[in-house]
Amino acid sequence: MILSLIKYNISYYIKSAKYLPPVLFFGAFLAINYQTLPIGIWGNLHIISIAVFILSNWIGASFINSEDKTQQYITRLHVKNETVYHLSKIASIIIFLIPFYVIAILWPSIFGMFIRDILFSEILIYLAVLFLISLLGVSIGIFFNSHLFSAEMAILTHLLAIGVSVVPLNEIFKDNVFVVYSYYLLPPVNFLAHRLHSLDLNDEIFLIDQNFLTFIAYALGYAFILILLYNVIIQRKNKD
Prior knowledge:
This protein has helices at 2-16, 20-33, 41-65, 69-79, 82-110, 120-141, 151-166, 169-172, 177-182, 193-202, 210-239.
């Protein structure tokens, strides 16, 4: 059932062509980012993470909006389990996104754009970080759809949410204790930023440590809570 739903969801989304603006944005971003060579491995991971976060947010919102309310109602009746229906949507978005961040890694790797050869273990770290960042982006983007907000309100609040998430406010206002501690309530998009840029300066190899494991737990927990909250809200909304 889940696999059939995922196949249906992705097929429906591709036919809607709503993926074109975010995909074109991401392609243009990569083309511009990879113009200046050589590329630092770890600084690049942070930059690509932000691009993937924006892409996954955008795809998440447009994916949910691709199926109109009548079609959603018919599909939900067919599935007979609303939780399965909504989780299949989220799984579909995450699967749809995988090729984009894989390309973001393979492009500079294959064409020798990095400052040195990237290790296989480092590619795995790239994949882990970008997967978690895309999961965070999707878990936020799904809220900003026409079923929960008016079209104008969804766009404005979504842009604000993305902006607040990607801008390192804790660094900009590091003397403001309230901002620094409040920042931990936001998605951990920049959680590894300082470490990644420090590694980049010294061309060091990324070692998995407590900081990285904390990021994994933080990102997974944050995304899980948002997805759970979305399911509760959307199901209550559908009952009204």
